């Protein structure tokens, strides 16, 4: 009797499927490195640490600020009773931000977090703006610590790019946001009714159509996208897919997908999200110079921390301001007069998204 069993076609296909699944599993295992724990790294990023020098705590708070493409375009110099915030020009975004406007706004966001943390830690802070010098100087002196909801909001704030739940913002919360303390020359313009929201959206659409038709813009964006956690964990910067609600994929696939996104597809996706947000706000300033940009960043970060303390989520849609040919049109369309639009933000209620990462303080010290 012949004991050899013949493999049927069905068994062969089963074996083939099992083999392919194992190969795919192996690929995913090596590509996405599940033993690298993203959540652990994010918790370390966003939790207060014991630093060797007390002022490093303030630098840590500053690094948790919003910043364009999460390039973290900053370097900090700790001096006797002072901290300087310098731009890291190796992290410029020459296509989307050719004049370094958003880079200085990002430094303003970092400054605001630093000032909130300084007050909470018992320092009085005096700021010298970058009118002459190419950096921000923060002089610190001992004061009584002032606890604040804004300080508690620093590790909770995030740019939440998901669709929101459409609920209206509570009146008393909106009033608190509208009464936010501003910086000289900086104003907030809220779009609180459907007509004003549609005007904002019209320009977001035009901005998306222009940006996604520009290969230089798309290439620069791709360079800062982190398509899987292995990439995010190795650079500790950039835009990690999961933070924007996108799946983890190998770089080649993500790159192909983003490069192949049609401008209209991007405009439609952002429009759908915009329409789930009951309110939007434009931050504008009297002039376009380093000091105005830093002050704009401060006001934005203060607004974002205040929203966070009220459990309101927000996300940027700066397209109509980043596309230079649209900026002036947007300025007139929303009735800003001579004030220059700097940032556009939608807000409302939503669940939190995965947190973004930051490079450790030691890496951003001069
Ligand atoms: C000046 C500036 C411009 C930004 N522009 C955009 C934008 O156009 N679209 C967007 O989704 N996020 C934008 N962001 C948000 C950043 O991508 C975000 O702050 C960064 O990825 C870090 O994530 P986090 O804010 O959740 O910590 C901008 C932030 C700043 C400060």
Characteristics:
single chain; 366 residues; alpha+beta; NADH Oxidase; 2 domains; four-stranded antiparallel β-sheet; 10 strands; 15% strand; binds flavin mononucleotide
Structure explained in plain terms:
This protein is an alpha+beta fold and 366 residues long. It has 2 domains: 40-157 and 359-364, NADH Oxidase (3-Layer(aba) Sandwich); 171-348, 3-Layer(aba) Sandwich (NADH Oxidase). Helix content is 45%, strand content 15%. The chain is built from 14 helices and 10 strands. It has helices spanning 9-32, 38-46, 55-63, 101-120, 149-153, 171-178, 194-211, 215-224, 229-235, 251-259, 263-274, 290-309, 319-322, 324-333; strands spanning 74-79, 82-87, 123-128, 136-142, 186-191, 225-226, 239-240, 279-285, 313-316, 340-348. The chain has a 4-stranded antiparallel sheet with strand order 1-2-4-3, with helices on one face. Strand 3 (123-128) and strand 4 form a beta hairpin. Helix 3 (55-63) crosses helix 4, helix 4 packs across helix 12 and helix 7 (194-211) runs antiparallel to helix 11. The protein is globular, with a radius of gyration of 23 Å. 40% of the residues are buried.
The secondary-structure element order is HHHEEHEEHHEHHEHEHHEHEHHE
> Which parts are unreliable, with pLDDT below 50 for 5 consecutive residues or more?
none
CATH homologous superfamily of the largest domain? NADH Oxidase
Taking the sheet with the most strands, its summary is: 4 strands, antiparallel
Kindly state the number of beta strands: 10
Q: Could you say which small molecules are bound to this protein?
A: flavin mononucleotide
**Radius of gyration, Cα only, in angstroms?**
23 Å
Strand fraction: 15-25%
Say what the CATH topology of the largest domain is.
Answer: NADH Oxidase
Can you tell me the number of structural domains? 2
Please count the helical segments. 14
Q: Averaged pLDDT, please?
A: 93
How do the strands line up in the largest sheet?
Answer: 1-2-4-3
Q: Please name the CATH architecture of the largest domain.
A: 3-Layer(aba) Sandwich
Oligomer designation: single chain
Helix fraction by DSSP (H/I, runs of at least 4)? 40-55%
- Per the principal axes of the C-alpha atoms, what is the gross shape? globular
User: Which structural class do you get from the secondary structure elements?
Assistant: alpha+beta
What is the CATH first-level class name of the largest domain?
A: Alpha Beta
């Amino acid at each position: 009797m012949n004991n050899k069993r013949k493999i049927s076609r069905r068994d062969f296909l089963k074996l083939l499927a099992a083999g392919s699944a194992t190969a795919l599993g192996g690929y995913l295992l090596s590509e996405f490195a599940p033993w690298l724990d993203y959540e652990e790294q994010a918790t370390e990023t966003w939790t207060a640490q014991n630093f060797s020098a007390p002022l490093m705590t303030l630098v840590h708070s500053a690094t948790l600020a919003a910043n364009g493409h999460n390039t973290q375009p900053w370097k900090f110099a700790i001096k006797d009773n002072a901290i300087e915030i310098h731009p890291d020009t190796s992290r410029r975004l020459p296509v989307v931000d050719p004049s370094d406007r958003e880079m200085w706004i990002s430094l303003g966001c970092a400054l605001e977090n630093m000032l909130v943390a300084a007050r909470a830690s018992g320092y009085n802070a005096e700021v010298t703006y970058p009118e002459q010098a190419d950096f921000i100087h923060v002089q610190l002196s001992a004061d009584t610590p002032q606890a604040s909801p804004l300080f508690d909001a620093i590790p909770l704030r995030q740019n939440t790019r998901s669709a929101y739940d459409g609920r209206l913002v509570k009146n008393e919360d909106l009033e608190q946001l509208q009464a936010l303390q501003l910086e000289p020359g900086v104003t907030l313009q809220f779009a609180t009714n459907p007509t004003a929201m549609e005007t904002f959206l019209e320009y977001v659409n035009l901005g998306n159509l222009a940006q996604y038709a520009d290969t230089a813009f798309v290439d620069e964006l791709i360079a800062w996208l982190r398509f899987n956690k292995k990439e995010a964990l190795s650079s500790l910067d950039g835009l990690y897919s999961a933070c924007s609600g996108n799946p983890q994929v190998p770089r080649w696939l993500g790159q192909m997908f983003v490069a192949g996104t049609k401008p209209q597809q991007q405009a439609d996706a952002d429009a759908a999200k915009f329409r789930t947000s009951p309110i939007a706000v434009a931050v504008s300033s009297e002039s376009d110079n380093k000091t105005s940009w830093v002050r704009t960043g401060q006001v934005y970060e203060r607004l974002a921390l205040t929203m966070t303390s009220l459990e309101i989520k927000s996300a940027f849609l700066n397209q109509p301001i980043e596309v230079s040919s649209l900026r002036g049109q947007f300025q007139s369309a929303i009735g800003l007069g001579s004030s220059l639009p700097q940032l556009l933000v939608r807000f409302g209620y939503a669940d939190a998204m995965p947190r973004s990462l930051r490079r450790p303080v030691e890496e951003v010290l001069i």
